[in-house]
Specification:
Elements lengths: L4 H17 L16 H12 L2 E10 L3 E5 L2 E13 L9 E8 L2 E7 L2 H4 L5 E2 L1 H5 L8
Antiparallel strand pairs: 1-3, 1-6, 2-3, 3-4, 4-5
Length: 137
Amino acid sequence: MRQPAATWFMIAIGAAALAACSTPTVPQIDPNLYPADFKKEILNTLTRTLGYPTKVRDAFIADPVLVPIEKDQRYAACVRYNARDTDTHYMGSADHIAYFLGGHLNQLVPATKEQCGKAAYRPFPELEKACFAEKCV
C-alpha cells in the first residue's frame, strides 16, 4: 500500500526537527580575552615571516593594552626590532603592532607613530636570541 505524500512530508519535518535539536552549540569566545601568551605568539609569527629571523637586534615589546578599533576595543601590543633581510643586511629599527582577538594573535602589521609612539617598551630578549638558521652568523 502506498503512503500518501502528506505522510512522507510529516516524516521529513519530524526528522529535520530532531536533527536541529542535536546540532552542537558553538561556544561564544570573549573577543577581548587577555592574550596570556602574547610574547610566544608574536615570536612564532616573526620567526615565520621575517626574511632572516636570526640575530635580530634592538628588540623591544610592550604589554598588550585595549585600543579602540572602529566601534570596538581590542588588545594590541607594540613590537620594535631591527631585523635582517634575506641578504642578511640590517633594515633598521621598525615598529609593528599586534592585534589580538579572543586572546590570540590575529594580525601583525607595521605601526604608525600614533599607534606605538607612546608604547611602554621593555626588552624582548627572546626575539634577539632566536636562531633558526643551520648556523647563526
